[in-house]
């Protein structure tokens, strides 16, 4: 019972921290920071946080060599590729549709997990998972996002690769998790690979960072907060990956949507309509009852 409560608490905390990261990212991008730099600071911040908390003590060069493929695939599929797709597609398909990329991996991870035996089929579990996704759609519903959608069909198809990539990565990390490496070290090395990948992209694309931004609109403070929150969020993500599995952590996207709307309302005075209220309720019910069924089965076997 204690383990179930702890995992549920970590899931909601991770969703809150990632929602704060999204909020800060929006602020610094509005201030003039390029989105790819934001993604780099997220990965680099996570790496630095994990180093400072001692995650690197057990890391040896042998470990990196033996599990190079795992860290490369986990970082590319789980973070680098989907982030770049969303950043590239958002101006073509709109914020609402792009945001669904973080909710749909739940279904991808569930279907793959069923196929390979990581998840047992349970009609109630499936219905509550679908309820969370439906709640996210309702939550994000805006006429300017969906009803008047005139985005490029090609970009819409490209965007579908993002939830597919994240869903596959969630399952891959569970199946191929290096058994001889601790959770913090696994998170550390995955984010190290992501940081290096983003750095190469920044150099290849020759994206410049305007040094004048450091003194504007608290950009330096916000980026520092973003790096810290990203680090804590990444630790929670990998801890839940190891202890609760890919489908459970797949609920994060819906939770981020819920907290993101609340924070947007409090900080940016974003509209909070009956759509967002109804979506919030559906997300909460879906996540709560799926989690309850999962841990009940883990404890009793039925």
Automatic annotation (TrEMBL):
This protein's record includes keyword Transmembrane: yes
Principal subcellular localization: membrane
SUPFAM superfamilies cross-referenced by the UniProt entry: Multidrug resistance efflux transporter EmrE (SSF103481)
Annotated membrane topology: Multi-pass membrane protein
Keyword list, A-Z: Membrane, Transmembrane, Transmembrane helix
A cellular component term, taken from the record's GO annotations: membrane
All residue ranges annotated as the EamA domain in the record: 13-140
Compartment list: Membrane
Signal peptide start-end: none
Parts of the chain that traverse the membrane: 12-29, 35-56, 68-87, 93-113, 125-142, 154-173, 185-207, 219-240, 247-266, 272-290
Source taxon at top rank: Bacteria
Entry's family note: Belongs to the EamA transporter family.
Name of protein: DMT family transporter
